[in-house]
Amino acid sequence: MEEPLIEIRNVSKVYDSGTVGLKNINLTIQKGEFVVVVGLSGAGKSTLLRTINRMHDVTDGDILIEGKSIIHYKGKELRKLRRKIGMIFQNFNLVKRSSVQRNVLSGRVGYYSTFKSVLGLFSKEDKQKAVDALKQVKMADKIYSRADELSGGQQQRVAIARALMQDPKIMLADEPIASLDPLTTKAVMDELKELNRKLGITVIVNLHSVPLAMQYADRIIGLRAGELVYDKSIAEVQETDFDSIYEGAAKENE
Ligand SMILES: Nc1ncnc2c1ncn2[C@@H]1O[C@H](COP(=O)(O)OP(=O)(O)OP(=O)(O)O)[C@@H](O)[C@H]1O
Fold first, then answer.
1. pLDDT tens-digit profile of 13-45?
2. Does residue 219 form part of some domain?
3. Are 68 and 76 within 8 A, CB to CB?
4. Pocket test for ligand 1, best of 17, 47, 206, 224 (most atoms within 8 A of CB)
5. CATH number, domain at 157?
6. What ipTM does the predicted assembly reach?
7. Is residue 138 one of the residues assigned to a domain?
8. Which of 55, 102, 116, 191 has its CA 20 to 30 A from that of 110?
């Protein structure tokens, strides 16, 4: 079998406050998978995603990407790792007063010296790349709009275009549709699915909605209180499975 793209081995994360974010997680993700992570608020979904791109360091265990341990990466190695991994957030994280073009080009910053990126000296190739990325998310006509003139769904698609500028192998999306209405939710989820299918990017998405998870995932992972309590391919998933992840946890809190 092919080498796994991501291997999480016995990973635990305890925050400085003493809160346990993750408890002994073991998880292997293959190239090309579309994985949805579900679980109650506070279950550790964001923590899990953020350990994969080293926004958070783990307390214990190891994470391998393409067979290499990443947990001690620093400087150049860490920058190279982060280029491979695009990230999408609930609140889009765009520079609201900047143009769509500028926001998308900023996804390329990891490839430039600080000097050039501060001055906005982007190459002609990268400007064309930004147009292509915007075409991919069907936002090319908004290239000169200001980010804050766009709807939430449009902003999220620009954020996806920005992440595509990195030529990522992995796309991490942390509640990407939490602040969107059903119609724009569909546009954003369809976009993530398309770049998984068409561009072969491995996608890991945190979602609260089980029906959406079932609609889009190849595989669903469930977290509860920092532990991995569920891991099935979509063909094996049954909606009642989630009672133990959601209702069971609710009972515990009573
Ligand atoms: N920076 C932090 N410092 C301390 N504790 C944190 C930090 N980030 C998260 N936590 C705690 O770690 C646990 C897991 O949080 P996490 O945000 O990963 O959960 P989540 O499943 O993503 O929840 P949500 O759906 O609300 O985003 C929670 O108890 C949370 O309060």
1. 999 999 999 999 999 999 999 999 999 889 999
2. yes
3. no
4. 47
5. 3.40.50.300
6. 0.95
7. yes
8. 191
| Closest Cα to atom 31 of ligand 1 | 42
Examine residue 1 and state whether it is found in any structural domain, yes or no.
no
Structural domain containing residue 140: 6-253
The string of pLDDT tens digits covering residues 59-83 is 999 999 999 999 999 998 999 999 9
Residue numbers in the chain where pLDDT is lower than 50: 249-254
Let me know if 213 is exposed, middle or buried by CB neighbors in 10 A (0-12, 13-18, 19+).
Answer: buried
Q: Which residues contact 203 (CB under 8 A, 6 or more apart)?
A: 33, 34, 35, 170, 171, 173, 192, 193, 195, 196
CA distances from 250 to 232, 241, 247, 254 (A): 22, 15, 5, 7
- Provide the H-helix boundaries in the chain: 45-52, 75-84, 100-105, 114-119, 124-136, 152-164, 182-197, 210-216, 247-253
| Ligand 1 neighbour 39 (Cβ under 6 A) | yes
Grouping H, G, I as helix, E, B as strand and the rest as coil, residue 128 is: helix
Which of 38, 46, 223 for a ligand 1 pocket mutation test, highest count of atoms within 8 Å of Cβ? 46
Tokens of 179: 């602040």
